[in-house]
Amino acid sequence: MQAISADIIVIGGGIAGVSSAAQCALDARVALVEMESRVGLHATGRSAAFFSPAYGNAVVRDLTAASERFLRSPPEGFVDVPLLRQRDCLFVGRHDQLQSLADLEAEVSLLRPVDTASIYSRVPAFRAGYLAGGLCDASGGDLDVDALHQGYLRQFRARGGQLAVDSEVQSLRRVDGQWHVRTENELYCAPLVINAAGAWADVVAARANLGPLGIEPRRRSVLLVDSPAQHDIADWPLVVDADEAFYFKPEAGQLLLSLADETPSPACDAQPEELDLAIAIDRVSKALDIEVRRINHSWAGLRSFAPDSTFVVGEDPRAGGFFWLAGQGGYGIQSAPALAHLSAHLVTGQTPPADFSAVVDHCDSVTPARLIDA
Asked: What residues have CB less than 8 Å from 292, skipping those under 6 apart?
């Protein structure tokens, strides 16, 4: 079999793999291999599509913040539609959740207290007496995930990148400083591999005879229902329970609901569980005075987490030239521009532009070495 030669092989065509491949393609010949018939089929294509710098731990928040300018003002020619549309995020709580709100406020400087009267005026469907307090993040908004993903894909192709779909990686071997990556129909050779396989990241590592890092896929279920007839919900904020027991927001004229579940799952084509959908409806119905008569659409996706819920970016100390770009959790879309620059810096030595210069400060925080036993 004739080997296809490249400088870098990226495994995984979700937002992490495509954005990293596009950035690395500035300096290198990059081959991107995706096991499905199209890219972005799993977590990327099933995202709730919201940008919030208040999400996640300190590292996640910093890398999200570094991505904000790109998302608000993308480079000329990258997309022909806005990537980010302003929408506030409200964290709300009952009387028994006031401590949770206080903890959030202490942890996240972006959040500002908002009184219950203001919340009721913005989301009048809340049941009387349900609310005891809230916090507002006014820096977020709806993300056009498909436009972002396709923008990076066009950029990747314009820079000479090679894309192969229906190309599940079957084995990886390092021979004389070259990684031999075998799919069903092709053999790729390159000195560097980026494992951006999302929920399958540990599976790919196993095929390279590397032990797992503990990247755990967790299922999240989402559903769409009719908007309440008596309310215009178009400008409602994203509303998140103080303990993240549920969230809801407008979505294309309907109401998107989720119980914010993080159910451990094997890597698979995730499907929603009927019980999870029922729990989401029950929780939201206890908060809002609405009647859900039917589910218009439902889906599930796998968000993958490292044991410490922090991104994993960097070279595996056990195998030269094997780089991880994994564990994005629920933050991979909104942090993709920063992670693309960080991974390209680590893989090719590329110097990030001024807007992204701070990403290099997080190399030690995201290194896979922290997850490998000595």
From this structure: 225, 226, 281, 284, 285
pLDDT tens-place string over residues 77-87: 999 999 999 99
> Of how many residues is the chain composed?
374
Q: How confident is the model over 21-56, as pLDDT tens digits? A: 999 999 999 999 999 999 988 888 888 789 988 878
Kindly calculate the radius of gyration of the chain based on its CA atoms and give it in whole angstroms.
21
**Domain match, 133 and 249 both:** yes
Structure tokens at 26: 């500035």
**Predicted local distance difference test score (pLDDT) of residue 155:** 97
Query: Do 311 and 327 form a contact (C-beta atoms < 8 A)?
Result: yes
pLDDT recorded at residue 1: 66
Phi and psi, residue 312, nearest 5°: -120, 110
Can you give the three-state secondary structure of 13-29, one letter per residue? CCHHHHHHHHHHCCCCC
Q: Whole-model pTM?
A: 0.95
Q: Are residues 300 and 221 in the same domain?
A: yes
pLDDT tens sequence across 282-312: 999 999 999 999 999 999 999 999 999 999 9
Per-residue DSSP letter, 308: T
The verdict on 250 and 274 lying in the same domain is yes
| pLDDT tens digits along 143-192 | 999 999 999 999 999 999 999 999 999 999 999 999 999 998 899 999 99
Beta strands per DSSP E along 196-321: 216-226, 238-241, 247-251, 254-258, 263-264, 297-305, 312-315
Q: Which two tokens stand for residue 347?
A: 């893989």
What is the CATH classification number for the domain harbouring 154? 3.50.50.60
Alpha-carbon gap, residue 60 to 34, rounded angstroms = 26
Q: Among 333, 334, 337, 310, which Cα is nearest to 324's?
A: 310
Taking alpha carbons only, the member of 192, 191, 197 closest to residue 35 is 197
Phi/psi for 142 (5° steps) reads: -80, 135
Does 132 share its domain with 180? no
Question: What 3-state DSSP class applies to 187?
Answer: strand
**Four-point Cα dihedral 200, 369, 10, 306, nearest 10:** 30
- Structurally, how many domains does the chain consist of? 2
Domain, as residue range, for 293:
89-137+216-304
